[in-house]
Specification:
The complex is a heterodimer of chains A (260) and B (273). Chain A folds into two domains: 1-43 and 227-260, no CATH class; 55-226, Orthogonal Bundle (MetI-like fold), CATH 1.10.3720.10. Chain A has twelve helices and no strands. Chain A starts with a helix and ends with a helix. Chain A is globular, with a radius of gyration of 23 Å. Chain A has helices at 2-28, 45-52, 54-86, 90-105, 108-122, 127-152, 155-163, 168-197, 200-205, 213-223, 228-249, 251-259. Helix content of chain A is 82%, strand content 0%. Chain B has helices at residues 2-7, 11-32, 43-46, 51-83, 87-98, 105-116, 121-128, 140-164, 168-176, 181-210, 213-218, 226-235, 240-269. In chain B, helix 4 (51-83) runs antiparallel to helix 10, helix 10 (181-210) packs antiparallel against helix 13 and helix 12 runs antiparallel to helix 13 (240-269). Chain B is mainly α and 273 residues long. Helix content of chain B is 76%, strand content 0%. The interface between A and B is large, with 76 and 75 residues.
Chain lengths: 260, 273
């Protein structure tokens, strides 16, 4: 009994540690007061200001566009790479997987700075360079999600289809694709999340005047933050919550469970 | 024949990585070993021994170690408690402990700044209770607080995963053979969760060692980590050669700590315990 309640207390303390900061942001987003902590009554004006602020909305759309585009391109490149790696000999495979891990393990600051050195040498920093950087750090996530699915899938069915006269492309879509689809999908989602959350690499590879949400919040925090940011964080948190709930407990998740 | 053709599918990826991973690293090496006029030098590397750089490197190592230690101490009991819960509620509760990780990195730092600032939430609460205020914003403690908050899920997840893979049969067998709770913990649970602990440590230690944004925003310019020194060398002093040299040193530390941990991980897996 004592053990149970000690466990409860421990869980609640960690829970508090994790959620108190988020709760503070949420409460402040409804606070009608300029000084940060004083409660000055309930208001929705920060939310209204948020949607009419062109700089915030622009950063929001930039963030979304970059993460969507980088996730799509890296999913395509990563899926092709996984198919290629899967066809290699064991030793080459190990080398390729090792090389794929390097950008995952390297420090963000070094990845970002090294790409900046390259970009500055050959072109100008801007949206394009941020996109390239994001694709680069996203591809490994896709490969590492797709490769295990390919390992599980059977090669014989694909070869049988070819023997029966299917073109490689047709056989791919009819046989390989259904087997690796969950891996491709989770790789895409992971790439998108990583891209949405990234600060360091964006910070070093973006040109002047371009902001994603992360870099904008960073710059604002050094000057003094606008209350609109609290409203923004509340919305982003609720979006993440909804997305995760859907992924974990939504219809597709349940289907996967029953299949098992 | 067909196999070879399929291998070619990895071609675009290889080209991409050669261009945007390999080439940039070569650039860092080039800048690190040259002067502004392009002559060979070792000064950029050896400048890590300048007292201000050495101090920031040592501070980074210290804070990263503290952060990793605190994360481990918090996560291990948490993983055990989560693992001991009923199957049904487990999924949802694990989900709750991972959710904050999905909130934007910058917003999490912002939240801590609000909590810790002089007229912030924690101090207002303490004042209302008649307690003395906590003045830790702009100190290393604030930085460690926020690092722990940011990286805690990276420690919880691998340890929890390792723990949930331990079969009940093994624990039961040990109990039948007369092992007590303490023996079971040290002889079975700890060794079997070692791989999880090791990957947790790596996933917390490396970002903590190399971060610059947290110390920049919560340290108020007074907490200078090696990441901050590198960032300032590049973005404020435009001394790319010095910045590259220090980046290389940092890379060596990252690689060394990972090599150390992966060696430890294999040891644990081989059952040294």
């Amino acid at each position: 009994m004592v053990k149970k309640s000690a466990q409860r207390i421990y869980l609640s303390l960690i829970f508090l540690f994790l959620y108190l900061p988020i709760l503070v942001l949420m409460v402040l987003s409804f606070n009608d007061s300029k000084t940060r902590v004083q409660w000055g009554g309930f208001t929705l004006k920060w939310y209204q200001n948020l949607f009419s602020s062109s700089s915030i909305m622009e950063a929001f759309w930039t963030t979304l566009a970059i993460s969507l585009a980088s996730a799509l391109i890296s999913t395509l490149l990563g899926m092709l790479a996984a198919l290629g790696i899967d066809a290699m000999r064991k030793r080459n495979q190990a080398v390729m997987i090792g090389a794929t891990n390097i950008p995952l393990l390297n420090a963000d600051i070094v990845t970002g700075l090294s790409m900046m050195l390259l970009f500055v040498r050959f072109t100008r920093l801007g949206m394009g360079t941020v996109l390239i950087a994001h694709i680069t750090f996203n591809i490994p996530y896709v490969i590492l999600n797709v490769l295990p699915k390919l390992k599980q899938s059977s090669r014989t069915a694909y070869e049988a289809a070819l023997d029966l006269g299917a073109t490689p492309l047709y056989a791919f879509f009819k046989i390989v694709w259904p087997q690796i689809r969950p891996g491709v999908f989770s790789g895409f989602l992971m790439a998108m999340t990583m891209s949405l959350d990234d600060f360091s690499i964006t910070y070093f590879t973006k040109g002047a005047g371009i902001h994603t949400l992360s870099t904008m919040i960073y710059t604002e925090m050094r000057k003094g933050i606008r209350p609109e940011m609290y409203a923004l964080s509340t919305i982003l948190f609720l979006l993440a919550l909804a997305l995760l709930l859907f992924m974990n407990f939504g219809p597709s998740a349940r289907k996967a469970e029953t299949r098992q | 024949m067909c196999n070879l053709k399929r291998q070619l599918l990895a071609g675009p990826y290889l080209l991409w990585m050669a261009g945007f991973i390999l080439l940039p690293v070569i650039m860092i090496f080039y800048y690190a070993f040259t002067t502004t006029s392009g002559h060979f030098t070792l000064l950029n590397i050896s400048s890590i021994f300048a007292s201000i750089h050495l101090k920031s490197l040592l501070l980074s190592l210290k804070l990263a170690l503290i952060c990793t230690g605190v994360c481990l101490l918090l996560s291990y009991p948490l993983a055990m408690i989560l693992n001991g819960m009923k199957e049904k509620s487990q999924g949802f509760i694990v989900f709750i402990f991972i959710l904050p990780m999905w909130m934007n990195f910058m917003l999490r730092i912002l939240a801590w700044k609000l909590l810790l600032s002089n007229n912030g939430v924690i101090n207002t609460l303490l004042e209302a209770l008649g307690l003395p205020g906590l003045d830790i914003l702009n100190t290393p403690s604030a930085v460690v607080f926020c690092m722990v908050y940011d990286f805690l899920p990276f420690m919880i997840l691998p340890i929890y995963n390792a723990m949930s893979r331990i079969e009940d049969d093994i624990l039961e067998a040990a109990r039948d053979l007369g092992a007590g709770t303490v023996t079971i913990f040290f002889k079975i649970i700890v060794p079997l969760t070692m791989p999880g602990v090791v990957s947790g440590i790596t996933m917390v230690f490396v970002p903590a060692l190399t971060s610059f944004a947290i110390s920049d925003l919560l340290g108020g310019g007074k907490v200078l980590l090696i990441g901050n020194v590198i960032e300032q060398a590049f973005m404020q002093e435009y001394n790319w050669n010095l910045g590259s040299g220090l980046s290389l040193v940092l890379m060596v530390f990252v690689i060394a700590s990972m090599a150390l941990m992966s060696a430890k991980g294999e040891e644990g897996g081989a059952g040294v315990w």
